[in-house]
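tool_log.txt
---
The assistant was asked to compare two proteins side by side. It first ran the structure predictor on the initial sequence, then on the second. Raw inputs and outputs are pasted verbatim so the downstream comparison step can read them without reformatting.
(1)
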Amino acid sequence: MPSLPVSRTGIMNSPTKVANPPDSSAPAPIRRRQRARKACLPCRLRKRKCDMQHPCSMCKTYDYECQYAKDNRPSAAYMQRTGLSLSPGSRLLHNDNGESDERMRSESPVSRRTLHSHTDSEGKDRSRSDEILKPIALDRGILDPYNSRYMSQNSAVAFPRSLAADLQSSTPLPLHSFAYHCSLRPEESGSSHVALSSIISQEEFNVYADVYYTAIHPIFGFLEHEHFAERCGNYWNGSYQSLEFSAVMAGVATLGSYFSFPTGHPREQDILRYAKGVLEDSEICRRPSIDQVCAWLLRSIYLRATTRPHVAWLASCVTLHLAEATGLHHDVGAIILTTDSTPGHSISSDEQGLERARAVFWCSWTVNMLTAYEYGRSSVKLDSITCKQIKFTPGSSFANLVKIAQMIPPESANCDRDELLRGIQAMKRINDSCEMITLTKADFAFAFYRRLRLLRQGIEKAVIADIVTLGNKSVSAAYILAQQNRPWWNVLSTIFQYCCVLLSVDTSETLSHVAWVLETFEKVVELLGRTHLAVEALDTARTLLRDSVKKKKQDLSLLEIAASGIDQTGQVEDVGIDWDAVFNTYPPISLAHDFIANGMLGDYKSGL
């Protein structure tokens, strides 16, 4: 019994009936193949009727990527002659020669594919359909904008909806986790939260928000000031009081309070716990949103400045995972939306809203990359990133911070020495737009040096000179920030790491800077109020210096033992060697002419 043909959806088609022999008197049958060629590729692949619009009704209904194959025959005159559109938001058009007519921004990390022309044969035409549709089906994710849930199209959660679309269901299924578990227990209930206004007043909040936008926003510029101020106004007048946005406001207030050093809000820790309670609420966690990403990002920055590296790294990973969960790593044109609904907490579809979303993603990615690489942990690896780069203004410190993160080579078991050397050169080329950027450049130059040191392949003097240049600038920048009461985390850590690098390189050029660095270090510790970690770091640097001196004294004693055979005048003792006999092996120069003239030089050499 012949096997049933299988469709591309994995469902067996019914067997076709055997056609009767054609009657010679009957009119010629209509070539249905011509009509099939007019259909779009998704309709042809699924054997659906196509209305030949762009996009057609089926593709519009089921969120397919409506595309038409190139065909230069007269019957296909309505088709586009210039090429194919990969996606409405980030398309890459190709002409008949395969050359690009429209490209995305050069900074975008979207992978680019060149689509080749095809023949009119049915077999190659179907392979052409596979060539176009398969990569798109794998690359494009699906996003529910109302619940801000992103996933790949191959997800078990997305599969029922995709199947319903293939079956032309009259009621398309929602993006829902059907049968995800046995549902034997109820979900954890949410927590109750006090109002943020009961902890901090509007006047106090405005003061610390101004500090935030003065000290922090120029470097981590993901919260647009005007947009944030407008939403804060709506929150305080009661027209919009979302718990998620209140967590964002709490994050801004805590950072503003921290950078109001040496003063700050008396209930800074209460504001911090408020934001943490909202972010860890089980009911709120069920629906990730861009506000949650912003709140976690603010929390990551605060934890990096105030607590242990493990906690800061963990928070940065959660932030980037939430950015992926909300689809921020893709531009809107690169994903499928389940609905056109755009509630207040979702990403706005206008250009300003898209730019805000890109800023949030790239800042989240940067914080995770910097924290992980400095600490020696793995960063979050996203499968694909199609989010475009931000439209940075010239001299932007935020732009320079993202550049620093993008210069970091990937961590691997086989570390590439050339990549590390290029990284140091790249740090040197980035502009010192502010003191924080100067410190961060030095931090990662030191990070590259630590990895080069482990390779034990030697480091050129020019590379060491570049590291010293970056280090000296960072010490001056740290002292300026300490005087301005801007307690960034690397005000202390960069100077301490620079001391370690100078002692590790251990050359006259590097050791000549140790005294000045330690002197500045002491001044910074005093300006910070001699905190526990500051005094601990200074004492450790002094201990390392004493250990270096001790080691050099031990080396010097070994050299003194080796030089014990030399007397006080520096003369070498006579050990009875007849130096005249050693150096008078050849005849005097005055006899050379006689030797050569009489042909005796050859006999003399043969006798040696």
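(2)
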Amino acid sequence: MAINDLPVERIPSPGNKPNRNFEHRFFAAFAAVFVIAVLVGFGPTFYLKPLFNTPPIPRAIIWIHGFVMAAWVVLFVAQVYFISSKRIKVHQKLGIVGVIIAPLLVVTGLFLTIAAAKYGTAAAPPNIPPLSFMIVPFGDLLVFAVLFAAAMYYRKNSPNHKRLILLTMLCVCRPRSHDFPAD
């Protein structure tokens, strides 16, 4: 028997309805879990600050970066909703906002990183000087910028675009353990 005579199992195509439904549910679940993680991690010290007895935020750049990050998260959730509800044109038009927010996120992130190196940060491990630790957030911002640029390049290729956007979310917004409340 020749290799060409062997039965081949057909691989489901990406246009399959079950695959699309799974992907829509996956991205919706990711968006929900992500919002919860951000609220748990940053709620007490930033987003829900008036409800908690936490020290004041010392620098304006933290507020600015926090609002830009909040806009990024809200945009992601909205974009997932519009795609899931098949409102592609709204998703595409709203994507322009992402092209504005992403560079703002990088710029505010750079300023925040410089401030953290100058004044110190809880994000840095105790045995690493803040100036040396600066490479970590700089690297995160660089990877975010490259992934976002690639996502924009592949915006007409839905499978690549959505996966790259998901990676930008994981890259720049990943919850850090020191941001979660200890109690």
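---
observation on (2): The mean pLDDT is 83. The first helix runs from residue 17 to 47.
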